[in-house]
Amino acid sequence: MKKQEYKERCEKAKAERKKRRKKVRIQKITIFGAALLTACLIAVGGNRIGAAIEERRLLEARNESFVGAPPFDVELLDVNEYSRPGIPLEQINGIVIHYTANPGSTAQNNRDYFEGLKDSHETKVSSHFVVGIEGEIVQCIPSSEIAYASNSRNSDTLSIECCHPDETGKFTDATYTSLVRLTGWLCYRFNLTSEDVIRHYDVTGKICPKYYVDHPEAWEQFKTDVGEQIKVVEQEVLAGEGE
């Protein structure tokens, strides 16, 4: 082989090796970039997914399910001393119904207010669930942790905040339907009866939820409807077990 030809082949082989190394570097950069993008998407938009997974894990750990539950979004608050202290809820002896006292606000508005308390330090308040004017439901705190909602009963109750359109505090039909379904499901899930469902008023004397303090007969009807819903959930669970 001539010296010039050998030199040309060496140069060609060198160029090929350089080209392959460059290709490998590009592949590594692409893989790293994809991983970084995925991580960013999880960090920015994955909170809801992570929250839903967390709550589902808690249910599965107790051999429970979402059978009989109304649709709801799980948007858990960050753990902080002002709205989600992360303190375990050792037992659940009741469910406390509240109203927001903020006419026209949505479930998301109220959830985001609770979340913002970690920065504003304005007060300490939260709720396990918020039911919106259109019947939407947002879960803010796992059922295994306390919420800052019901004063002396924080340690053994779940709390549900309800939105309302005006100063009367009366719930829309959509809010009422979702509240009955949610309360009935929670009662069944934690072996409670409709008599274990109370108003914030029954704990502290605060006029909350206003409409049900002003209209005790409407409150009794609500508890009756919850009792019927518990039976509906039980039937759905039994039907599911028989499949």
What does this structure look like?
A six-stranded mixed β-sheet has the order 1-4-3-5-2-6, with helices on both faces. A hairpin with a 5-residue loop joins β3 and β4 (137-139). It is globular. It has helices spanning 3-45, 47-61, 107-120, 173-189, 200-204, 210-214, 216-241; strands at 73-74, 94-99, 129-131, 137-139, 157-162, 197-199. The chain contains seven helices and six strands. The protein is an alpha/beta fold and 243 residues long. It has one domain: Peptidoglycan recognition protein-like (Lysozyme-like, 3-Layer(aba) Sandwich). Helix content is 51%, strand content 9%.
Q: How would a crystallographer describe the biggest sheet?
A: 6 strands, mixed
Shape: globular
Q: What structural class should be given to the helix and strand makeup? A: alpha/beta
The ordered string of helix (H) and strand (E) elements is HHEEHEEEHEHHH
**What order do the strands of the largest sheet run in, or round the barrel if closed?**
1-4-3-5-2-6
Oligomer: single chain
Regions with pLDDT < 50 over 5+ consecutive residues?
Answer: 26-45
What is the annotated CATH architecture?
3-Layer(aba) Sandwich
As for the number of domains, it is: 1
Round the mean pLDDT to the nearest integer and report it: 84
Q: Which strand-content bin applies to the residues?
A: 5-15%
> Compute the gyration radius: what is it?
27 Å
Count helical runs: 7
CATH-assigned homologous superfamily: Peptidoglycan recognition protein-like
For the terminal residues, how far apart are their CA atoms?
A: 80 Å
Proportion of helical residues: 40-55%
In total, the number of strands is 6
CATH class call: Alpha Beta
Organism: Candidatus Blautia stercorigallinarum
Keywords: Cell wall biogenesis/degradation, Hydrolase
Protein name: N-acetylmuramoyl-L-alanine amidase
EC number: 3.5.1.28
